[in-house]
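Hi there. Long-time user, first ticket. I'm pasting a complex I've been working with (about 227 residues overall). I'd like to know whether the download I got is complete or cut off, because the file seemed smaller than I expected. Thanks.
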Amino acid sequence: QVQLQQSGPRLVKPTQTLSLTCAISGDSVSSNSLTWNWIRQSPSRGLEWLGRTYYRSKWDNDYAVSVKSRITINPDTSENQFSLQLSSVTPEDTAVYYCVGVRGGVFDYWGPGTLVTVSS
Amino acid sequence: ETGMTQSPATLSVSPGERATLSCRASQSVSTNLAWYQQKPGQAPRLLIYGASTRATGIPARFSGSGSGTEFTLTISSLQSEDFAIYYCQQYNNWPWTFGQGTKVEVK
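Hi, the file is complete. Here it is re-exported in full:
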């Protein structure tokens, strides 16, 4: 059974970079059948997919258009985890952030979520 | 981007009654449609995928139907633990997109 554990700061100042990490147990970040995603949820935006990283003979990423200029998702094979960095944050980036393992487009495995507040 | 519209926004149902939730896609998603349940303070949980296949451990009172652009999630007899928010999500057209959710509350 895949389990995901999130870590990272819950308070970030405007203009700074939001950084979260998702540790995977029960499968590998290099899995050929799963992709590793970040989603956020806020009252104004609902569930918003942000991006993913995955390995299919090589590493690749996809990002949502809305955050493409600010987002980086990286795998860490040595720690079996993946990370999210979102730069130049504003209060509109305040949300609950989830890491999710996705199989064939279905969001199978969810982390517990991290409420990140952007405030000075 | 494929828009997903759920209705109603809120559904008031008595325990033991049947609940019917709708999800409409702005373009065909075939049967590549999933449903999720979210309770307060928790992450969403997968209920249904492929429009009608229950995920592991999901009770038989949950059923899904539909194809193309119109989908339905039915909860045959609501239990106390079923009062939650339900989301549909399409995975036919990139990027994957979610509906805004239907809140099922106690009548």
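A couple of notes from our side: The two ends of chain A are 39 Å apart (CA to CA). The interface with chain B takes residues 46-49, 62, 64, 98, 102, 104-108, 110-113 of chain A (CB under 8 Å).
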